[in-house]
Specification:
This protein is of the alpha/beta class and 334 residues long. The chain is 30% helix and 23% strand. It has one domain (7-13, 43-111, 138-333): Ribokinase (UDP-N-acetylmuramoyl-L-alanine:D-glutamate ligase, 3-Layer(aba) Sandwich). The structure holds adenosine-5'-diphosphate (ADP). Adenosine-5'-diphosphate binds at residues 199, 238-241, 243-244, 263-264, 266, 268, 271, 274-275, 278, 309, 312-313, 316. K(+) binds at residues 270, 272, 315, 318, 320. Its cofactor is Mg(2+).
């Protein structure tokens, strides 16, 4: 383990959102004047990396000063080499304090984009997602070996995710996986997995339980038990405005049921990136606990979830994706 600052690596997607707001959805063959056009940076990987960086740094003004950062945060992924989007994307991530030296700029590839049309009147959207370079992340071990925590999602090829997860488990790196977008996973993914974070629909798909059974009112212990019996140590099911259900392997072994922790009561503006903020905040708490765990203090999952709930509740009070992810001082002040 690293003896100085903990290190989090996020292996995942980087996408540019191209958002056009229109008075209505154009018909086939029609040219329609739009109301506005905006670009934004996204991708679950990049969003979670930004959350990790901001939630371990006091504020934007000190983002690039390494002395004020509590955690070193590395992004691993791929963007296009010669397209217009890659350079500004990396510059924005660096301004948030992220180490982007492991993001590959791939020759002849394009940065992933989501082309989004939003109909102004209804808010209804149409999205075309082009994964581009995200699908060409090299199928090889991408960790340096000195990381404390690896954060994964499923927007990069599964082969890359599984290979690096295995590598991390062998090196004693704590793995946090947010398997989104969810696809059924082989059982060996769960063996020795430290932290599984899923929302309601992901929990249903991965456990094979009917979606109607995954609600804040249901007893989610049997759902969590499915994952724990396959080898997961901490199962966290996020339930939107209803909060979070969690269960640990230790409590399961003692036949204790899991707990529901309510979300903060706030005025919701836009829930985009709430889940990504939650995952990033939780990963920061895992990383910060690593040094004390080495001296025998167990991981305090309740305070990790409380911190993540607080951070995600700030995200839902703002519009946008990465724009809505808070800095540490905002969570401390909330
Ligand atoms: P996802 O965006 O992945 O579907 P959720 O909707 O479950 O994830 O939200 C993730 C977390 O964001 C929740 O566990 C909670 O902490 C926070 N959150 C989401 N919606 C709200 C809300 N309406 N009020 C307060 N917090 C919220």
């Amino acid at each position: 383990m690293n003896t100085s600052k903990p290190i989090i690596a996020i292996l995942g997607s980087l996408n540019v959102d191209l958002v056009t707001r229109t008075p209505r959805i154009p018909a086939a063959g029609e040219t329609l004047e739009a109301l506005s056009f905006n670009t934004g940076h996204g991708g679950k990987g990049a969003n979670q990396a930004v959350a990790c960086a901001r939630l371990s740094r006091p504020s934007k003004s000190s983002a690039t000063s390494s002395s004020s950062a509590q955690v070193d945060v590395r992004m691993i992924g791929a963007i296009g080499k010669d397209d217009a989007f890659g350079g500004p994307f990396l510059a924005a991530l660096e301004a948030d304090g992220l180490d982007v030296t492991r993001v590959r700029r791939l020759e002849g590839q394009k940065t992933g984009v989501a082309v989004i049309t939003v109909e102004e009147r209804t808010g209804e959207n149409r999205i075309m997602f082009v994964p581009g370079a995200n699908h060409s992340v090299p199928r090889e071990p991408l960790l340096d070996g000195d990381e404390d925590v690896l954060v994964l999602q499923l927007e990069t090829p599964l082969e890359v995710v599984f290979l690096n997860m295995q590598h991390a488990k062998e090196k004693g790196v704590d793995v946090v996986i947010n398997p989104a977008p969810a696809v059924p996973l082989p059982d060996d993914v769960y063996a020795g997995l430290d932290h599984l974070i899923v929302n309601e629909s992901e929990a249903a798909l991965l456990s094979g339980k009917p979606a109607e059974e995954i609600t804040p009112e249901s007893d989610l212990s049997p759902v969590a038990a499915e994952f724990i019996e396959k080898g997961v140590k901490n199962v966290i099911i996020t339930l939107g405005g209803a909060g979070v259900f969690y269960q640990t392997a230790a409590r399961h072994e003692q036949s204790q049921s899991g707990s529901l922790i309510p979300a903060k009561k706030v005025k919701v503006v836009d829930t985009t990136a709430a889940g990504d903020t939650f995952v990033g905040a939780y990963a920061v708490a895992v990383a910060k606990s690593k040094a004390s765990r080495a001296t025998g203090t167990p991981f305090d999952i309740d305070s990790a979830i409380a911190f993540a709930n607080k951070a995600a509740a700030l995200t839902v009070q703002k519009n946008g994706a990465q724009d809505a992810i808070p800095w540490l001082h905002e969570v401390d002040d909330a």
